[in-house]
Amino acid sequence: MLPFHFYLKLGFEHISNLAGYDHIMFLVALCAVYTVGQWRHVLILVTAFTIGHSVTLSLATFDVLTIPSEIIKFLIPVTIFITAINNVFSAPPDVRSPKIRRNYFMALFFGFIHGMDFSNYFKALIGEFGSIFQPLLAFNLGIELGQLLVVLGIFLLAYLALTLLKFKPREWNLFISGAAAGMSLLSMIENKFW
């Protein structure tokens, strides 16, 4: 069996690798409506995404769930687009609002889709080396660490934009969500499977 740190590093690189910008773009869209003061809610969102990612990765590894990769490659930018459009047409989330709960559900559900993206490679590694528990735990911890690093970067940029450049939160949301929607739309066109 490969060592724990191998899978930890693999999970971290899976999220933080700029070549696989789709996961980063999803996190950017997910965080666009939140302020630094709402970091706890973002932490829960990111964890919900990791849980969804983990469940699907497990199901795909055991061949319980199989979706062709060309469909997944199309659905990932769809999740980014829906998240970005949701940001544009929704009021900013209040701590007590149902929107926060809806965002948690979206992050969890979209994590299911994103988890399928890496499943074939992960399944090949596990098939070679046996048990799934330790590799899956290490991989998901790596994903969570990578996501937290990305979110920290997003919040740093948001803080600079809102304080130094004097963006209003709504303007920042529209700018970031619009960019995410545009990039994801191009990716959907590029990855269409029909």
UniProtKB/TrEMBL annotation:
What UniProt keywords are attached to this protein's entry?
Answer: Membrane, Transmembrane, Transmembrane helix
Q: Which residues form the signal peptide?
A: none
Pfam families, per the entry: HupE_UreJ_2 (PF13795)
Q: Which residues cross the membrane?
A: 20-37, 42-62, 74-92, 104-126, 146-165, 172-189
InterPro entries per the UniProt record, alphabetical? Put_HupE_UreJ (IPR032809)
Q: What is this protein called?
A: HupE/UreJ family protein
User: What organism is this sequence from?
Assistant: Agaribacillus aureus
